[in-house]
Amino acid sequence: MILRWSVPLAAWLVVVLQLQALLKFTLAAEFEFPIRNGRNQFSTVIGVGTPPQFFPMLLDSGSEEVWVPGPKCRECDEDGKFFNPADSTTFGNLPEVQKSAGYASGEVWYHEVFENVTCPAGSRREETTCAVTTGKVSFLQGGSSSCVGLAKRANATATTVRLPIGLTDRESPVFQSMPFDGIIGLAPSKSNFVEALYESGNLKHRQLGISLLPNVQKMFLGDMGPEKAAKMEWIPNAEHDGYWSVPNVALSYLDANNEKHDIPGVYRVVLDSGSSVAMMTESTQQMVKSLVPCKSQLSLRFSATFQHAIDVFVHTRRQHSKGLVLGADCNLDVMDLSGFPDDMLIMGKDFFEQVETWFDWDSDRIGFVKA
Q1: What DSSP line would sit under 104-137, residue for residue?
Q2: pLDDT by 10s per residue, the chain, length 371
């Protein structure tokens, strides 16, 4: 007997396409956070306390601390925005031990508390549905300016974990005008946001991806899925002593005839999503200006199969320099790096704007999504 299906072929095609979309959806990163660019500082919105008090927070793979302005630091933010423990039912005080965190642009002094940290509703495999308009960033995916009543979709739920978080008592003046309120340090530590999500069972894998590409500006947390995994170039033996870095990186450059020239030595490259510029010590800058012809590109060779060219000279996209002057039309487009060895280079947002970069706690490796 020949069975005849009464369902039209077009209907079956719709079902197949829906299943394919669902499969891709469930195999994507477990959390996706939209990233906004405020004056070359990239942040996302995170809630602190219960009910959540929401703050735009800088995504920083170059540090491990998590902090927001505290009530003793009302002058720290030009908007006067700070976390108020009195408004949180889950606030947990700790002995007030002063700590500090230093950055290239300044320093903060803080004490730690235990508090709930909330991923906004919709960040779990969806776009966020929370809108925050603090005068610094605005996420316009729905929701309200106070982020009360987060979920606008029936299946959108917030995810909350508990971890130590710093409340600043004092900050360098430079932070007052920054387009973010706090910082999420993404280097591994036991008080790390990613670690807390993993320990609470909200992540299958301790993996973090950052993309600042023009068409995809997101932070990804958790398993990346097989489709993206097939495009990855992993660099083993990554280091993360307070910041993520790749050791044993070789440098070279191409001259005007497209011929490659190696630069002596090997370097440790810090991949710092919280930095708006590349950074080198003064000695390394002097070496670069003596060896590399004006307007050439440096090439970072991370492995035998992956290298990436970077612009270190001023060009039409950004006409400014915080480095050494090479000539009227040939300035180094890097910032001075003080207090670090000469073999250390810091790559900031320009790197992440060109390469989607992943950090893997479980295997101590850093990966790049090949185009």
Answers
A1: TTEEEEEEEEEEEEEEPTTTTTS------BSSS-
A2: 333 334 444 443 443 334 333 333 333 468 999 998 877 788 999 999 999 999 999 999 999 999 999 999 877 766 778 999 999 999 998 888 899 998 877 899 999 999 999 987 656 654 443 333 333 333 333 333 333 333 333 345 788 999 999 999 999 988 888 889 999 999 888 678 888 889 989 888 999 999 999 889 999 999 888 999 999 999 999 998 889 999 999 999 887 788 889 999 999 999 999 998 889 999 999 998 888 887 777 899 999 889 888 776 654 434 444 444 444 456 777 889 988 999 999 999 889 989 999 999 999 999 999 87
Per-domain boundaries in the chain: 31-223, 232-369
* Domain at 31-223: CATH code: 2.40.70.10
Q: Which CATH superfamily is domain 232-369 in?
A: Acid Proteases (2.40.70.10)
Give residue 269's identity as a one-letter amino acid code: V
Which residues, other chains included, contact 204 with Cβ-Cβ below 8 Å and sequence gap of 6+? 30, 222, 223
Candidates 55, 369, 23; CA nearest to 215 is 369
| Chain Cα centroid distance, residue 261 | 32
370 Rama class: left (phi>0) / alpha (psi -120 to 50) / beta: beta
Confidence (pTM) = 0.79
CA 133 to each of CA 79, 149, 178, 206: distance values in angstroms, whole numbers, following the listed order: 11, 15, 15, 31
Enter the tokens of residue 172: 């360098």
C-alpha–C-alpha distance, residues 294 and 309, integer Å? 15
Closest CA to 42 of 273, 228, 315: 273
Helices (H) and strands (E) in the chain, counts: 5, 21
Give me the residue label for tokens 């002057």.
325
